[in-house]
Amino acid sequence: MLDTATPPAQSSAEGDDAAAVAAAKGAAHAALKLEKRLVRQVAQAIGDFGLIEDGDKVMVCVSGGKDSYGLLDVLHKLQQRNGHRFELVAVNLDQKQPGFPAHVLPDYLAKVGVPFHIETQDTYSVVKEHIPEGKTMCSLCSRLRRGILYRVADELGCTKIALGHHRDDMLQTFFLNMFFGGKLKGMPPKVQSDRGDHLIIRPLAYVAESDLTRWAEIQQFPIIPCSLCGNQENLQRKQIGQMLRDWQQLYPGRIENMAVALRNLVPSHFMDPRQFDFKGLVPNGVQDADGDKAFDAEEFPAQAVGMLGGLPLMPR
């Protein structure tokens, strides 16, 4: 009787190949799903807040970090899908940090086919000259960088300046202002510059940092760490970021609900007379869903499921 069984070694090899194929298909599906979510969320933010209009020339500030790479990548995809109704120009400020790999961004931008401008200004020497050793350099560096980028935007004829701040950055800013600044103030998706002569936009307003981290890994962006000040970190922002991550781990969905809360303000239920006319308030006989229920306990759903820009918050 003939033995028709597959030799063990061959069977094992075929099994490994099948597993590898299945894993590759699964990874490709997950990557496509993530790409669709990123594009959808950025498009939703653009529509909700009027971030980009036909004919705009958008300057995308690219630092070499995952967030700005992700922003440029998604905007480029949207531009191509929408028939190039707006222009993109990627701008990087080479601040002449020692060891900065100046070739990385030009090589990448040329490869992906996005027009770009590299502005070279030795702000590193200025910062080192004016900031004592051991002190944080971020504040002065930020002011110098901002002024230079505003000038470049004018020279390039850009109508909008796009920054790579994401949903988690916006929540961190809100809590930083509340805990340390004594004000309820966030990071808006669209705002005038401090001089009033530029429009700053944040198309990643609905995007989770974890998604940008994963997308950077999938796309293999050539990440450039900030080494100007030895990777100094804003300790307060770091603490807030960890607090949010801890909350999310203990209570999945909390970050999403807090992000929704930034879009659902009830001025009459704060204590700022500049935002609501408390002195002029009188009973008007009209029912109000936000009116006070003084003797009722507040009730909240055990696991809130809200909507962010028309998108389901959970599951993702």
TrEMBL record:
Pfam families: ATP_bind_3. Binds 1 [4Fe-4S] cluster per subunit. The cluster is chelated by three Cys residues, the fourth Fe has a free coordination site that may bind a sulfur atom transferred from the persulfide of IscS. Keywords: 4Fe-4S, ATP-binding, Cytoplasm, Iron, Iron-sulfur, Magnesium, Metal-binding, Nucleotide-binding, RNA-binding, Transferase, tRNA processing, tRNA-binding. A motif (PP-loop motif) lies at residues 63-68. InterPro entries: Rossmann-like_a/b/a_fold, TilS/TtcA_N, tRNA_Cyd_32_2_STrfase, tRNA_thiolation_TtcA_Ctu1. Pathway: tRNA modification. It is found in: Cytoplasm. Residues 57-220 form the tRNA(Ile)-lysidine/2-thiocytidine synthase N-terminal domain. It comes from the Bacteria. It catalyses: cytidine(32) in tRNA + S-sulfanyl-L-cysteinyl-[cysteine desulfurase] + AH2 + ATP = 2-thiocytidine(32) in tRNA + L-cysteinyl-[cysteine desulfurase] + A + AMP + diphosphate + H(+). Its cofactor is Mg(2+); [4Fe-4S] cluster. Its EC number is 2.8.1.-. CDD domains: TtcA-like. [4Fe-4S] cluster binds at C138, C141, C229. Catalyzes the ATP-dependent 2-thiolation of cytidine in position 32 of tRNA, to form 2-thiocytidine (s(2)C32). The sulfur atoms are provided by the cysteine/cysteine desulfurase (IscS) system. NCBIfam families: PRK10696.1 (NF007972). Belongs to the TtcA family. The thiolation reaction likely consists of two steps: a first activation step by ATP to form an adenylated intermediate of the target base of tRNA, and a second nucleophilic substitution step of the sulfur (S) atom supplied by the hydrosulfide attached to the Fe-S cluster. This is tRNA-cytidine(32) 2-sulfurtransferase. The gene is ttcA.
